[in-house]
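#onboarding

Welcome to the new folks! Below is a worked example of what a typical request in this channel looks like: someone posts a single protein sequence, and someone else replies with the predicted structure as tokens. Don't worry about understanding the tokens yet, we'll cover that in week two.

Example request:
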Amino acid sequence: MHEKSGLKYLHNFLIHVIAFLFFWHNKCYDLIGLDILKFTMKTLKEVFEVMDKKKGNAMALLPLVVFMVLFLGVSIVMKDFYKMPVVVALIIASTVAILQNKKIPIDLKVERFCKGAGDSSIILMCLIFILAGAFAEVSKAMGAVDSTVNLGLAVFPPGFMVAGIFIIGSFLSMSLGTSVGTIVTLTPIAIGVAKKTGLPIAFLVAAVVSGAMFGDGLSMISNSTVAATKTQDCEMVDKFKANIKIVFPAAIIALIIYAFLTSGMQVKHTGPYNYQLIRILPYIAVLVVALTGFNVVLVLIGGTVLAAAIGLIYGSFDIFTVFKLCAKGIAGMEDISIISILIGGMGELIKVNGGIDFLLNVIQKRVHSKKGAEFGIGILVSLVDLCTANNTVSIIIVGSLAKDLSESYGVDRRKTASLLDTFSCFIQGCIPYGAQLLVASSLAAVSPFLIMKYLWYPYLVGAASILAIIFEIPKFKTPARGSLKLEDDKTPTTA
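Example response:
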């Protein structure tokens, strides 16, 4: 901060000196002299901006490398994806991040780690985890999962079962505006379907994650949507129209693949299937209320209360059992909450130590055309998401630079907002240490790497995003409308 202020004062001082010498020498205020002075001032300003710009530090990315080697490398070598606990790998990687940059006192680095770990987006995500855990546990004990599973088995044909899960996940995520909340809500149902049909659990959970990522990208209340549109001064509806032209073909292909793969599997499908619509009501209520734009936290609290009320009325449990179920559901989310906190802290230190700045500068130097700018935006938000494991945060970090690149090379802001969303969705849906896969694997008790085998939508949306750049999709016939105006100008939070 002091260095930056010093450069600013030096810059202003030199400008005043040049102005004084110029006017003293010429003793006139003609238009030519003023133009020369303005040019000199502009040039000097640009020079100091370059001098003041952070170049970043590649070594700041070392904690991420350490984490990947420990988490992924050890699992591959030992042929056991449970050999290295995620929490332990993150603690070691976070320790490496804290020990880096000896110029900063250790106390300050720990403080910055805590700041990143306690970021509002991280805390909100943890709150969603624990509320969703309570909701899932109470709903399950009340009989909501069994009734929903049986209804799905009764409605969907065997060959369309997994594709149906994908559709439900898409609709729920679009309504809730959170992929994580959708995964927590729908994964128990997917597990129930897997047990009754004999289909691989990882296969069904992958369909849930895929549908959740698809719906979250198109949701009007998703924080990633708000971040993408706000940073690019783009309206949500315009981003939606541009986005759907990129992601919808990927979703259709993913749907076909899930249906095709299911048709080749032996599916146990014997009836009749008994269900009570009243026990499905909490899931329906959560979906309907979310459509009104209610906060996801209030939606999950209301869903838990409704599930508890139905269970009490129908004698599924008593009030004290409800409390125990809530505690059990919350406890089941402890690991994922701790993981999210550690990732937030480590990501903050990577940023402080110059890792994010390094990535920004590397990409910016290699952009020389419109398509190059679009690819640069996509690669940039992908790399930052790899470091932060948070698509909303990565969009916010890259947003300002993406806007500058777009304006410099004539990229429509609607396209930029869409690329930020689709590329971050691609990475976020694939990384084994992202919140989506971690919570899904935790609930299903399977390795995130097993789920990754069937994550067709995230892979396809990554390919679709690349093709959208190559073939200039979408093509805009009209200019972008006015910027998005929000009453709350605070940084969007993630979910």
